Amino acid sequence: MTIRIRTAAALAGTALLAAGLTTPAATAAPAAAPATRAAAAAAPHRVLFDNSKAETAGNADWIISTSQPDPLAQNASPTTEKSWTGALSAWGVALQKTGQYSLKTLPSGSTISYGTGAALDLANFDTFVIPEPNIRFSAGEKTAIMKFVQNGGGLFLVSDHVNSDRNNDGWDSPKIINDLLTSNGVNNNDPFGFSVDLLNITTDNPRAAVAPADPVLHGPFGTVTGSILRNGTTFTLKPADNPNVKGLVYRTGYSGSTGAFFVTSTFGSGRVAIWGDSSPIDDGTGQSGNTLFNGWDDPAGTDAALALNATAWLSKA
After folding, report:
1. How far apart are CA 33 and CA 172, in angstroms?
2. Which pLDDT value is given to residue 249?
3. pLDDT by residue (tens digit) across 18-74?
4. Are 129 and 45 in contact (CB under 8 A)?
5. What is the DSSP secondary-structure string of the chain?
6. Domain range summary for the chain, segments of one domain joined by +
7. Span 46-314: which CATH code?
8. Shortest CA distance to 267 belongs to which of 182, 173, 154?
9. What is the pTM of this model?
10. Is 81 exposed, middle or buried (0-12, 13-18, 19+ CB in 10 A)?
11. What pLDDT is stored for residue 22 in this prediction?
12. How far apart are CA 102 and CA 272, in angstroms?
């Protein structure tokens, strides 16, 4: 004797058919769809902040928390930038409070990797934030970063001015980022369509371009009107190399391919954003002994909205 075990869903479908209320094709799909939608809605956008490249050298304190890799170990329910220790804590806390992001930090001494299976491997994240690196990426790390973006990841780079070598190893963030773009083992021919200008611009209040439909300038965290520049640099755009490169915020008196202060682009199926100064991401709080300034809330710019909208866009939120 053959015994057939029928699921509750199948029995329910049979009952509905008997009542003439549905068809077999219409029975199965609705049962699975709500669960699928709920799972998709619950999945957090995974953001990894780098601290493997001397991001706290000198007066820099470009971390979201001293608790690494998990900032929640310092405070699981942060409310303000002082809930976590780091000059980027306002950025991290703002994302955490939405309930839509999962944040981690790649600690000092770590190696950037992609596809190794390690817990902090880039394959486990949607967006990688590198705030003013002060140690040159190794050949393997450069390839890992590029593969991550090429395969759909979001890369958020923050540069600073020329000669901002905080750990005195001969490499500052403009040199390090340009090196990534020209010697990475994946595409050495200006893959993102921009280069970092070797400048030290003392002060300016760059303004946003007119782009009403741009998701970074007009995103879920507000409208961006501009930023602040306090000893930083700009970027030269090369749309012939990558037609998707866009200048979103420009130094006073500049437009088009020169003087861009905040830039977005794409590579493969991934996205890229770059900022020309670390001052806008500094929330003025951090570890003792550092000289920090609150650029995050500076009324001359809308830096919080710019950082957060860009994070959302890079994460495909």
Report:
1. 50
2. 98
3. 333 333 333 343 444 454 444 445 689 999 999 999 999 999 999 999 999 999 999
4. no
5. -------HHHHHHHHHHHHTS--HHHHHHHHHHHHHHHHHHHPPEEEEEE-SS-TTSTT----S-SS-S-GGGT-SS--SGGGS-STTHHHHHHHHHHTSEEEEEE-TT----SSS--TT-GGG-SEEEEES--SPPPHHHHHHHHHHHHTT-EEEEE---TT--TT-SS--HHHHHHHHHHSSSS--S-TTSEEE----EEEE--EE---TT-TTTEETTEE--B--EEEE--EEE-TTT-TT-EEEEE-TT--TTSSEEEEEEEETTEEEEEES-SGGG-BS--STT----B-TT-TT--HHHHHHHHHHHHTT-
6. 46-314
7. 3.40.50.880
8. 154
9. 0.88
10. buried
11. 39
12. 19
What are the residue ranges in the chain where pLDDT is below 70? 1-42
Question: Distance (Å, rounded) from C-alpha 14 to C-alpha 7?
Answer: 11
With tokens 């000289």, the residue in question is 291
